[in-house]
Amino acid sequence: MRKPNIDAYLTVIVTDKDGKVVYRRRYKSRSFVVGFLNALYSDFIANINGAIWPFIGSPNIVVGSGTAKPSITDTGLESQIGNGTGVGQLQYGTDSLTTPVANTSTNTASMTWSKSFTNGSGGNVTVSEVGAYVTVIPQPGGSTATFFILHDLLPSPITLSPNQVLTVVYTITISV
Where are the domains of the chain? Predict the structure, then answer.
């Protein structure tokens, strides 16, 4: 019998200016941080306290150049790379999420969350860490809260040449 679990997998894909894949790796993410539980708690408690249905808004995958090993109490990347075309920056795309899909024959379900980052800086930019934020928005009214929920240090840094695109994909799976 399989043990129930929640897992995340991180896939990083680098394409050149013509869209050709030049690098692709998939890793098991080992870095749900305490913000993941805080986001769930905030969502649950708002519902208990009479909110119609709090919702998660503004998903945000981010990349950085830090090298410190992730910690359970991390609240952000060690060194987030800025959004733009200046020296050392990347142009952040839009986050994309798929609807969760259940497989009843294997008792698993999964969803993907992805974002692309384009190097329009004119120089090389090195990415060594990836993370993700979610914002919980209670309805009606109430204050919003943003939580850092995932933090991964890449086994090997990825250096993006000008015009290369890094696509980060988190696949989150559950099993019973």
Answer: 5-175
Please tell me the number of Cα atoms within 13 Å of 97 on its side-chain side: 13
* Mean of the per-residue pLDDT values of the chain: 88
Burial class, 156, CB count within 10 angstroms (exposed 0-12 / middle 13-18 / buried 19+): exposed
Residue 103 tokens read as 């497989």
User: What was the pLDDT predicted at 138?
Assistant: 63
Contact 175, 8 (CB under 8 A): no
What is the identity of the amino acid at 23?
Y
Find out whether 59 and 97 touch, Cβ atoms under 8 Å. Answer: yes
| Rounded Cα distance, 76 and 56, in Å | 18
| The pairing of beta strand 5-15 with beta strand 108-118 | unpaired
Task: State the number of CA atoms in the 13 A half-sphere of 60 facing the CB.
Answer: 15
pLDDT tens-digit series, residues 78-125 = 999 999 999 999 999 999 999 999 999 999 999 999 999 999 999 999
Q: What is the pTM of this model?
A: 0.88
